[in-house]
């Protein structure tokens, strides 16, 4: 992954496409990547995002004739963030990148590459608490019914897409988690699936009979798409390899649009599943386990409960919820 060129190092899987960095900055990026991957055990996606943001900052610094992490100041960090804002990056993206470089500068300080940590005083815009579109329960039923009808012709792709959308809604798992499922992770007798979430944490998530039937139908025709690259992947792309998140998103968008409801993403199905489980009376901590959140605060931001359910719970639980005429 790393190639040396004179006194510079290029940090990339495709080094010829990236500008060279001074050795001090390049070594810091390389070591930061190793730290995240080997010491912290972060996922490949997280490592790629954090190192990419650190690399972007270092390229910004190098363009201003800074050749080591110790030359990165708070003013430079603020200027770097300002360029992202001017380039039209969303508040969520800017906030995420600010978090990445704060992690980078904190690590550099611990390693002695910086005398003080400028990232400690770096403010960034709040990402906001906008919630994705949530299907109401009747709309979710229409989507599942449409997916079933669309798969009646026996097309392997249509049968697969029905299984995917049923499983996403039934479990609330992330699209990345669904793509990573192997056949051995599915227990159709117990109607559970083992998934690996953020931080490589595994959890077992239950699903209902409709999803079980859809997955069973898919596994019966999976061989029609199977190829040399299939391995044990539960869900396959049209060319036989493990399905990718982009294909899943396209399938979900298409099925929801065809069903005559708002075109939504897999993430919206995840949010819909959590909301419907909460509306059905589930405990918030149970939903936390379902979604694989490490913090209950994340679940509280991610889900919302209808006013009707809150009112019903209050009337049932509070001793003075109903005014007595006695």
How would you describe what is shown here?
The chain is mostly helical and 326 residues long. It folds into two domains: 120 residues, Tyrosine recombinase, N-terminal domain (DNA polymerase, domain 1, Orthogonal Bundle); 178 residues, hpI Integrase, Chain A (Orthogonal Bundle). Helices cover 52% and strands 7% of the residues. It contains 13 helices and six strands. A three-stranded antiparallel sheet has the order 1-2-3. It starts with a strand and ends in a 9-residue tail after the last helix. The N terminus is likely disordered.
Output the keywords.
mainly alpha, DNA polymerase, domain 1, 2 domains, 3-stranded antiparallel sheet, hpI Integrase, Chain A, disordered N terminus, 13 helices, 326 residues
**Pairing-aware structural class of the strands and helices?**
mainly alpha
CATH class of the largest domain: Mainly Alpha
- CATH names the topology of the largest domain as hpI Integrase, Chain A
Give the overall shape.
globular
- Named at the architecture level, the CATH assignment of the largest domain is Orthogonal Bundle
Number of domains: 2
**Which percent band covers the strand fraction?**
5-15%
Main β sheet profile:
3 strands, antiparallel
Helix content: 40-55%
Q: What layout of secondary structure does this protein have?
A:
Layout lengths: L1 E4 L2 E4 L9 E2 H17 L4 H19 L11 H13 L4 H20 L26 H14 L5 H16 L3 H5 L6 E2 L4 E5 L5 E5 L2 H13 L23 H14 L7 H14 L4 H8 L4 H7 L4 H11 L9
Antiparallel strand pairs: 1-2, 2-3, 4-5, 5-6
Task: Quickly describe the structure.
The protein has helices spanning 23-39, 44-62, 74-86, 91-110, 137-150, 156-171, 175-179, 209-221, 245-258, 266-279, 284-291, 296-302, 307-317, and strands at 2-5, 8-11, 21-22, 186-187, 192-196, 202-206. By secondary structure, it is mainly alpha-helical. Strand 5 and strand 6 (202-206) form a beta hairpin.
């Amino acid at each position: 992954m790393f190639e040396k060129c004179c006194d510079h190092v290029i940090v990339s899987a495709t080094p010829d496409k990236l500008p060279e960095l001074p050795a001090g900055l390049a070594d810091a990026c390389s070591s930061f990547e190793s730290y995240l991957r080997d010491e912290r055990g972060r996922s490949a996606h997280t490592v790629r995002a954090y190192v990419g943001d650190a690399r972007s900052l270092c390229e910004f610094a190098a363009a201003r004739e800074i050749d080591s992490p110790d030359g990165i100041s708070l003013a430079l960090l603020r200027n770097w963030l300002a360029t992202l804002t001017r380039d039209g990056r969303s508040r969520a993206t800017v906030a995420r990148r600010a978090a990445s470089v704060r992690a980078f500068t904190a690590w550099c300080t611990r390693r002695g590459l910086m005398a003080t940590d400028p990232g400690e005083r770096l403010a960034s815009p709040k990402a906001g608490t906008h919630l994705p579109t949530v299907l109401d329960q009747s709309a979710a039923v229409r989507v599942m019914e449409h997916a079933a009808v669309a798969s009646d012709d026996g097309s392997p792709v249509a049968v697969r897409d029905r299984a995917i959308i049923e499983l996403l809604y039934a479990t609330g798992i992330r699209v990345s988690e669904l793509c990573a499922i192997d056949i051995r992770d599915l227990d159709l007798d117990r109607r559970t699936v083992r998934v690996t979430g953020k931080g490589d944490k595994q959890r077992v998530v239950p699903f209902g009979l409709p999803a079980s039937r859809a997955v069973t139908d898919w596994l019966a025709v999976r061989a029609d798409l199977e190829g040399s690259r299939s391995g044990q992947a539960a869900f396959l792309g049209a060319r036989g390899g493990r399905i990718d998140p982009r294909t899943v998103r396209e399938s979900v968008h298409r099925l929801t649009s065809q069903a005559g409801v708002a075109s939504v993403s897999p993430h919206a199905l995840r949010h819909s599943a959590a909301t419907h489980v909460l509306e059905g009376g589930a405990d918030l901590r149970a939903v936390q386990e379902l979604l694989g959140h490490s913090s209950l605060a994340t679940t509280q931001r991610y889900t919302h409960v209808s006013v009707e359910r809150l009112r019903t719970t209050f009337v049932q639980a509070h001793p003075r919820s109903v005014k007595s005429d006695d």
